[in-house]
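User: My advisor, Dr. K., asked me to get a structural model of this assembly before our group meeting. I'm new to this, so sorry if the format is off. These are the inputs:
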Amino acid sequence: MNNLARRSHLKVSVLRIGHRVVRDDRVTTHVALVARALGCDRIFMNEVDKSIRSTVEEIVDRWGGRYFEIEIIENWKSMIKHWKNGGGKIAHLTMYGVNIDEVADELRSCDKLLVVVGASKVPRELYQVSDYNVAIGNQPHSEIAALAICLDRIFIGKELTRQFDDAKIEIIPSPNGKRVLKKVRE
Ligand code: SAM
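Assistant: The format is fine. Below is the predicted structure of the whole assembly, which you can bring to the meeting.
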């Protein structure tokens, strides 16, 4: 369990759908890194290049977050069905949704929340199956930015000072230059 989740019942996972092989590799990697760094426990992705998993695993190995799971799924529709049957709620991030500030309190009160981000056009069905269609403003921008802002609203900034107990390396915040603490010899 991560130390943000310890402060509440909430466990947040991310589902990335619509990944286009090669073209979306970098963006999907960044979606996964944002999920890990900003308080989520897990990311679900459909078939992606192996390098995405290994990049995230290398970060987890050095910077901590052993609990962070990467799950490769075959079919997002059945995954969502399973999630809902298990009592989980779904927040789909889309510029067509309602403003995050209108639903942030409700999202925060969930036990198990799946935040879904798209890549290219998102199928209509996702809008219908989601408990919340949430906009981070109603202008088109990016799934990385949308996820980061959504998590910041959910965790009300606490995700920015979280510690990873199992980190081998840690940054000592500094006003000038780089200060890094090596907790384990690499
Ligand atoms: N044109 C696509 C569509 O019809 O859904 C959106 C493509 S956008 C590059 C990729 C993803 O970024 C979206 O699926 C959504 O998850 C996220 N996104 C982009 N802008 C957003 C916004 N203003 N609010 C919430 N999510 C947004």
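One thing worth pointing out at the meeting: The first helix runs from residue 25 to 37.

User: Perfect, thanks a lot.
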